[in-house]
Write a structure and sequence with these properties.
Layout: H1 3-16, H2 21-24, H3 47-52, E1 61-66, H4 71-76, H5 85-95, H6 99-105, H7 111-137, E2 142-147, H8 165-170, H9 177-183, H10 189-208, E3 222-226, E4 231-234, H11 238-243
Length: 256
């Protein structure tokens, strides 16, 4: 089968899911319906539960996220700064642990910021944090990072969006296409320096098990914050961490 046919089928499925919200449930509001399935056999339990039970205690881990993860998808939808209030309200009702608490924690945030924050938190940021926390709870070792370097392409509107970490880790800065849109035609020296630092950390971790910043623990929450100035700080997204502290990331239900 031509790979483009698979892409077209995926796009069509993602669009049609909204016609059966009563059956798909929250999955219909995600960017893709394709995810690991907890089937009791190949994947016996959700990954976070497995880590809490010690499944990864003998595997050292680097985990992390970008600060503005979902902004890429907002940009692709042409909605930066213009997310409708109704969509933001719906998204908070579906995904936020407590919509009122979310609004109270961000009193100056408009619809676009609330939409982006809750989608970034639910889909990427908080699962990365929970992955790290549960790895440690299960007796394993983990190192957490957050990339805050803004993407220099597109006049900087993308921030530290989803996908930005990939060309930086692999040093693939000049290949054009989507990477060119993120980094611009000629990435500045500051971006190249961050890329070199990330490559050193990842290769050192692969070679020695030490990426160069302290392991995460549940008290200090040491996090490598990656920008033109690189710092090790307590986990910087404390507001989100507190909002999601009691939320269980279980398997999404299908209602049909």
């Amino acid at each position: 089968m031509d790979p483009e046919e698979l892409t077209a089928a995926a796009d069509a499925t993602g669009t049609r899911m909204r016609n059966w919200l009563d059956r798909w449930g929250p999955v219909a509001h995600t960017p893709t319906p394709y995810s690991p399935v907890v089937d009791g056999d190949v994947l016996p339990v959700p990954p976070w539960q497995a880590l809490r039970d010690g499944a990864g205690r003998d595997v050292e881990l680097i985990a992390g996220h970008n600060r503005d993860e979902f902004r890429l998808f907002v940009a692709m939808a042409g909605m930066i700064g213009s997310v409708p209030g109704e969509l933001a309200d719906l998204t908070l009702r579906i995904f936020a642990p407590d919509p009122d608490a979310y609004r109270a924690a961000h009193p100056d945030a408009g619809a676009s910021e609330l939409f982006e924050r809750v989608k970034s938190d639910w889909l990427m940021r908080m699962p990365s944090l929970r992955l790290t926390e549960d790895q440690v709870r299960g007796g394993g070792r983990a190192h957490l990072y957050e990339l805050t370097l803004p993407a220099p392409g597109q006049d900087g509107v993308l921030g530290a969006c989803h996908g930005l970490d990939i060309p930086l880790v692999f040093g693939n800065l000049d290949s054009g296409g989507m990477i060119g849109q993120l980094l611009g035609a000629d990435p500045p020296g500051s971006v190249r320096a961050v890329s070199a630092a990330m490559q050193r950390a990842w290769t050192s971790f692969a070679h020695t098990g030490d990426p160069g910043w302290p392991a995460f623990d549940l008290d200090g929450r040491a996090t490598w914050v990656i920008d033109t100035e690189q710092l090790v700080l307590p986990y910087p997204e404390e507001t989100s961490r507190a909002l999601w502290a009691g939320h269980e990331f279980g398997a999404l239900p299908l209602r049909g």
